[in-house]
Amino acid sequence: MAQLQFIGSGDAFGSGGRFQACILLSIGADRVLLDCGATSLVAMKRAGVNPSEIGTVLLSHLHGDHFGGIPFLILDGQFSRRELPLLVAGPRGVKGRVEAAMEVFFPGSSAVERRFPVLFEEWEDRTTRDIGPVSVTPFEVDHASGAPAYALRVSAGGKTIAYSGDTAWCGALVEAARGADLFVAEAYMHTRQVKFHLDYATLLRERAQLECPRIILTHMSDDVLSQTTPEFERAEDGLILTV
């Protein structure tokens, strides 16, 4: 059994006052984040989640609203005397992007000696590997971010969660979601199609292909938040699900 908590369910622009993408997966004592947007440290502390207990972060892609919280997570650990190792897995170049962000925000911070190691791994398309307490298969999707973007299929304790990240509709989503217990899907717009993003109308039209019993929408703009989506559940900051 796994517990999923939406620490942040918003888009890049804080639509609806929501925090940026950050989903906490708890498997026993293990804590895993799916994405860690720039607002995630504040969101975790508001939700009563101890950032120093996060052992693994799985990144779908390298946009600030999905990975920009990593520098703050590392620095918070440094100043709170964290000792638990932090493993960050993401697209090609993830280590360089995180360290570059750290240097922009806090010059010299990427080279500071810490009490805990920060480790990085890079995704390979459709290659399953064990990352911390979970098994992850990344599927390359259609989203420009300066590096490949991925939907993630995450399995632990006999349960599987698929996560779209940000992407236009593509066949990789069908593969990622097939047979999963839950598919967390971006629905940035209601009916209007925006390049590199999913919309509610497309998800509804392609629903049968996904072969997943439960779909929950996230990363919604004001356009979606202001309208009804009766066919799908909606995430909101603080929502907790048992999978």
Short description:
With 243 residues, the protein is an alpha/beta fold. The protein has 8 helices and 14 strands. The chain has a 7-stranded mixed sheet with strand order 6-5-4-3-2-1-14. The protein has a 7-stranded mixed sheet with strand order 7-8-9-10-11-12-13.
What does this structure look like?
The protein is α/β, with parallel strands linked by helices. The chain has a single domain (3-229), classed as 4-Layer Sandwich (Metallo-beta-lactamase, Chain A), CATH 3.60.15.10. Helices cover 22% and strands 27% of the residues. The strands form two sheets. The protein has a seven-stranded mixed β-sheet. A seven-stranded mixed β-sheet has the order 7-8-9-10-11-12-13.
What brief labels describe this structure?
seven-stranded mixed beta sheet; Metallo-beta-lactamase, Chain A; 243 residues; 8 helices; 14 strands; alpha/beta
Number of DSSP E strands? 14
**What's the architecture in CATH terms?**
4-Layer Sandwich
Task: Let me know the CATH homologous superfamily.
Answer: Ribonuclease Z/Hydroxyacylglutathione hydrolase-like
Total helical segments: 8
Structurally, how many domains make up the residues?
1
Query: Which class best fits the helix and strand makeup?
Result: alpha/beta
Strand content: 25-35%
Q: Largest sheet, if any? A: 7 strands, mixed
Shape: globular
- The portion of residues assigned to helices is 10-25%
CATH uppermost class: Alpha Beta
Low-confidence stretches: none
- The average pLDDT is 97
The SSE order reads EEEHEHHEHEEEEEHEHHEHEE
Distance between the termini: 6 Å
CATH topology: Metallo-beta-lactamase, Chain A
Compute the CA-based radius of gyration. 17 Å
Strand order of the largest sheet: 6-5-4-3-2-1-14
